[in-house]
Write a sequence for this structure.
């Protein structure tokens, strides 16, 4: 169609190798931080504890719990840790909550013991949230829990001592954003304080000083969990300077991605990616124990919709099966009590983890590009763990595993019925007599590294012969693209590199032509990307091949990142019979990003004769 209508030889080679068959389970490769010059081996050693841990407790606690514990406050939007923002409370009025914060029931030993019994290996505590109130003993402001409340104690110091005693890693959340500090800019729209003399540079000095206190006064810190860094570019926040200071004080620390540039791990919020991050990028889903629509991370008296224990266990499995960590949040109330609903669920998750944690801790992502049953799969050396959520009454069928099995058994101690190797090479596991209502774990000890024939893990056509290629089912390769949610529906976003390739594996019963419709969103300032959509047969590694068919398209504006439209390409895509890989890759990105892609629909072109 234009000068970008043909793929370069380099892009062709890259695309042909993405979903080859067979495929081995891989230990993730780790990105090297260019600012530190750290080698992959050094990075792997520094992050080893975190990759082993897999499961942590997030704690949101602060003086915002005073108004959000008051049953007279019935407006959901003015509950939780964003109370100051959502209620448009002036700084002087918000400060009045500090003298009312008296957590007489706080028990550091009980909090840490609760996390440990739940199977968690680390705790992330909110030392300072966006409201600016400091939940530790800082000398840089009197606006802290020791000086401004009647309690006069430092909970972070007590948590540090208990984590050390009970063998958990202490990690610290720190918000760069600060609605209270006079020097932090910009002001909130309703904040009536003047800005005369306010200096973001001076505020960064303050934040840097507090980080030094946190890293010097509380022992070894496992991870620094930044937040609120989205309002300013890295240069204005002096983020590189801050990060260098942090690493100098605690060289072994791990840093998240919320103070640009992104450091050691990514932090998808309230959602689980469709698959592992590209290039072995470390990631951690943070999620509330209450359902997402409650929208509160801290305590809110009206939050009564809780995720079930089974759902939490299955999310733990799903995240581990995609190579991630799970940071599960609770919000203690203003007296220091973790709600009973939270405690009950943590205890129930802990009972499952005690019996089945072997399938979570220290594991890597599944070797199956697509899980062929209702459940998840994790890998550890020559061992696979199949975490089955709902066991089919006719038996669980596992296609594609080529490595012979030495031994198969259940982690729950139940006897395992003999499995059957079917004629097509798939393995059938009969239903055990007793299955776990949360997830039953099958352990497969293999005779070598797991090798999976991905060509049999394909999507069949729908009843009308069409294919719906959704974001959740895609395999992503490259540098930046990931599955996110916009308006509660998954899409492929953060698509900013021409090295990012998105693929689906389908089975085509007969050759034919298909019309192509993309459902995507894109604002005017990112429109114009030229992309190629290709269809290729599965090929073993090292076997040369060519793209069977290819068409191109150009991304047009749909108004903004949240307005999705369906756009049909003018040319059809030809598909050959057999196992086929559909790939979409940008060839030319003239502006910021490609698009937010929800789905691609392939519809058979019917002959008019």
């Amino acid at each position: 169609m234009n000068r970008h209508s043909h793929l370069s030889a380099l892009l062709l080679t890259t695309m042909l190798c993405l979903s080859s068959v067979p495929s081995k389970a891989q230990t993730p490769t780790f990105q090297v931080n260019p600012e530190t010059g750290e080698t992959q081996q050094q990075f792997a050693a520094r992050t080893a504890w975190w990759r082993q841990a897999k499961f942590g407790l997030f704690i949101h606690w602060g003086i915002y719990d005073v108004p959000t514990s008051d049953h007279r406050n019935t407006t959901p939007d003015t509950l939780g840790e964003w109370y100051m923002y959502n209620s448009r409370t002036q700084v002087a009025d918000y400060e009045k909550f500090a003298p009312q914060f008296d957590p007489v029931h706080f028990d550091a030993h009980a909090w840490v013991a609760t996390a440990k019994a739940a199977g968690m290996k680390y705790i992330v505590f909110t030392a300072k949230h966006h409201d600016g109130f400091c939940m530790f003993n800082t000398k840089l402001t009197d606006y802290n829990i020791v000086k401004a409340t009647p309690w006069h104690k430092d909970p972070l110091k007590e948590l540090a001592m208990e984590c050390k005693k009970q063998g958990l890693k202490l990690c610290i959340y720190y918000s760069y954003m600060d609605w209270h500090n006079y020097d932090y800019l910009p002001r909130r729209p309703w904040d009536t304080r003047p800005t005369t003399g306010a200096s973001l540079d001076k505020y960064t000095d303050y934040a840097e000083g507090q980080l030094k206190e946190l890293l010097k006064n509380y022992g070894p810190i496992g991870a620094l969990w930044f937040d609120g860094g989205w309002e300013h570019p890295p240069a204005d926040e002096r983020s590189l300077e801050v990060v260098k200071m942090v690493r100098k004080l605690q060289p072994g620390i791990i840093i998240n991605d919320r103070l640009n540039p992104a450091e050691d791990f990514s932090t998808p919020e309230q959602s689980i990616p469709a698959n592992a991050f590209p290039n072995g990028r470390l990631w951690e889903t943070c999620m509330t124990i209450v359902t997402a629509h409650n929208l509160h991370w801290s305590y809110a008296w009206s939050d009564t919709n809780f995720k079930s224990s089974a759902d939490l266990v299955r999310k733990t499995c799903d995240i581990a099966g995609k190579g991630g960590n799970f940071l599960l949040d609770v919000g203690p109330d203003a007296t220091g009590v973790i709600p009973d609903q939270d405690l009950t669920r943590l205890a129930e998750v802990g009972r499952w983890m005690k019996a089945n944690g072997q399938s979570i801790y220290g594991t890597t992502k599944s070797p199956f590009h697509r899980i062929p049953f209702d459940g998840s799969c994790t890998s550890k050396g020559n061992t696979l763990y199949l975490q089955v959520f709902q066991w089919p009454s006719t038996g669980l069928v596992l296609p594609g595993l080529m490595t012979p099995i030495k031994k198969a058994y259940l982690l729950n101690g139940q006897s395992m019925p003999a499995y059957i190797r079917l004629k097509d090479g798939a393995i059938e596991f009969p239903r055990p007599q007793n299955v776990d209502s949360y997830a039953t774990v099958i352990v497969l000890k293999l005779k070598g590294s797991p090798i999976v024939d991905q060509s049999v893990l394909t999507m069949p056509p729908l009843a009308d012969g069409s294919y719906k290629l959704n974001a959740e089912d895609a395999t992503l390769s490259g540098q930046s693209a990931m599955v996110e949610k916009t308006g509660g529906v998954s899409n492929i976003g953060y698509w900013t590199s021409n090295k990012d390739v998105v693929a689906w594996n389908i089975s085509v019963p007969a050759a034919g032509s298909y019309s192509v419709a993309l459902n995507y969103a894109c604002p005017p300032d990112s429109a114009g990307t030229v992309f190629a959509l290709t269809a290729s047969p599965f090929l073993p590694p090292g076997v040369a091949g060519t793209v069977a068919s290819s068409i191109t398209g150009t991304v047009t504006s749909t108004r903004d990142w949240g307005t999705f439209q369906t756009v049909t390409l003018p040319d059809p895509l030809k598909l050959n019979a057999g196992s086929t890989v559909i790939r979409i890759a940008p060839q030319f990105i003239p502006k910021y990003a490609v698009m937010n892609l929800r789905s691609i629909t392939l519809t058979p072109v019917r002959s008019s004769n």
Summary: The CA atoms of residues 91 and 180 lie 6 Å apart.
